[in-house]
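Archive entry. Fields below.
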Amino acid sequence: MTLTELSERIGITLANLSVLKTNKARAIRFSTLEALCRELGCQPGDLLAYDASDSAPGC
Amino acid sequence: MVWAYLALTFALMVLFLHHLRAVLRRTRDGAPFHPDNAGRLRLLGLLLLALAALQTVGAVLTSLALQNGLRDSRFRVPTGIQVDETLVVFGLVLLTLAEIFRRGAELEQEQSLVV
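PREDICTED_STRUCTURE:
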């Protein structure tokens, strides 16, 4: 599946998918996360991980 | 000196209209919270405050010149500093709007990174 196909199936633009892919996203909607998991056949934990070194102060 | 005062006032007004037009163009193009607009609104506010200051200075200089000319007559020219409060208030309102638009630009930028 290409990125363009994936973005069409998820319902977000290719630009937003690129934002997600390059770790530039500030937040993700649950609907987008659900669609990603559905299309990629995975769990949220397969896509998201917590990295303490990346946390902003106070988080 | 009169021509310099008039030229400066005219220049400030032209600058004001130029930047106001740019703000309206960005807004019409669907990007009211573009970072440029915040900067322009701040400049518009400062221009209004500068116009108010220029008018005050012009009024004081005019009074002094008239007073000097009427020195040997029985007429007296009112002196004192007069400020156009309307310009000052609108200038401050624009500065406040600029800050609001700056925050709006930040929120829009953040929102664009929510996928």
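CURATOR_NOTE: Chain A touches chain B at residues 12, 16-17, 19-20, 24-29, 32 (CB under 8 Å).
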